[in-house]
Amino acid sequence: MKFVIDGMLGKLARWLRMLGHDVVYSNNKGDDELLNIAKSENRVLLTRDFALYQQAVGKQIDAFYVEGRTEPERLAELAERFQLNLEIDMQTSRCPKCNSQLRLIRKQDADGRVERNTFEHYSEFWECIGCSQVYWQGAHWTKIKDTLKKAKETKKRE
Predict the structure, then answer these.
(1) Which end of the chain has a smaller Cβ tally under 10 Å, C or N?
(2) All domains of the chain, ordered by start, with CATH?
(3) In this predicted model, what pLDDT tens digit does every residue of 88-132 receive, in sequence order?
(4) What does the DSSP 8-state code read for residue 87?
């Protein structure tokens, strides 16, 4: 899916990108610009600004008012509304920073681009084709999986 997200939902933008969704996000875009992007690029507007949500609906722009307070709650809401899969697939995952596609790289191509300890302990690395950021499924992966698990549990209760 393709989304445009208002400045109040930056963390959610990163999560959706990791889940493989094309997300336009900037914390300095005004309401008119967000509405124009949503309409011209056929994106769903996600917002915590109820007035912006109402404006979008009034202009027949697909919009969703995000009510959740935590990331698991927000992800659960979106999974329910848009039938999103709450699993990260590195084949389709996007860069959480710039929204570009990721590609698997050879381990030796990560040498010198990540900490030595990281390079020695991990064998799979991905590179963003846009900003060249290197990613791996390190210790932080446990926290990522835990957040997604909580989102799935929240979704089941709704």
Answers:
(1) C
(2) 2-82 (3.40.50), 102-157 (no CATH)
(3) 999 999 999 999 999 999 999 999 999 999 999 999 999 999 999
(4) -
